[in-house]
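Worked example (supplementary).
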Amino acid sequence: MSTIEELLVSYKSVNDQLAKNNELNEKIFREMMFSKIKKSFFWLYFMEALTIIIIPPSLILFGYFIYKCSTNPLMLTLSIVTFLSILGSFYFYYKPLRFGFFIASLINEKSVTGSVIEIKTYLEGLKKARIWSLLAMIPYFIFGLPVGWYVLYGWSISGIYYWHLKNGSLLGFSVYILSVYIVVIYLVWKSFDWLYIPKLKKAIENLEELG
Amino acid sequence: MRLFSKPKTESEPFFKQVYPHQAIIHKVCNLYSNTKVDREDLFQEILIQLWRAFPSYKSESKFSTWMYRVCLNTAISGLRKEKRKPIFSFLETEKELPIPEDLSFITENEQVAELYKAINQLSDIEKAIILLYIEENSYEEIAKIMGITATNVGVKISRIKLKLETIVKQNQEI
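After joint prediction of all chains, the assembly is encoded as:
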């Protein structure tokens, strides 16, 4: 029967052997750190770029909506609430994507690895962001779309909204509004499954394969 | 946004320092994970934390000491997070975990296998201390890594050895 000290010495040699067996060669270690997972981030960067392109014109457009509604106090209030809710939606929806990483990757190639390293945090953040973005959109659904329709109607850009208001029944119009809401909610919810989460999971899988 | 807020880790110095010491990561992973998938997850997580912490490494202390500290902190804090998750906790069992298949060569030495099982039953902190002890770190180094005094390290090591002895004896009697 060995003493505990002797056992610990034997355990150490087994542990050393085990660590040696698990050792990764230089190439795999390097790849694991950097290169292979970069590819999985293309769509993330693409979406970040898209966001950067979309947000400024959206803000300008809503500024213009507010200006158009400025003579009617009720509509002005609703427009401001809408404006803030849209900003809130953007904040909660896009915050986890962190524009900073996109810009940083353009400035300095090496900083891409900084974002790669954070994939798991990204993934967790995105899962929360999915719920937050929908919550932030509630005021948008309540105020935003009706204000949008009002402005469009006021501009006489008739289209389907105009047709519904003039010719459709109130029930038909309500069903239409609800269906629009459902589609928007569905698209926001699914966008995470389509765009972000699979990309991140793929990145993690790549890492695991390399491991 | 954290575009300019953090010092960046340069890849080459990081690689040159960490790669030769990768055994430390593997040892910590083997100690705190019971399946291959968990070990791979933890390996990744540790690499991430090392990358993040690398700019803060100061050459005043030994690199291996710094690495042990980051690796053990990551493993222990990761386990704490896991334990906090209440969902499906009723599916978890408290019973002793078997030696994973890919570590089955441990069982070739029956007594080492018993010790392996006994170490598995230690608390996270105790596991860390015993790993540092068998890796021949000095009491001062262990103290620095664990954030306790060197005297305390000595006391803890004696207690852990006693505990291991008791567990091994109990297991053999069963």
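Two points are worth noting when inspecting this output. The interface with chain B takes residues 2, 4-5, 7-12, 14-16, 18-20, 22-24, 26, 29-30, 32-34, 98-100, 103-104, 108, 110-111, 113-114, 117-118, 120, 204, 207-208, 211 of chain A (CB under 8 Å). Chain A has one domain: 37-210.
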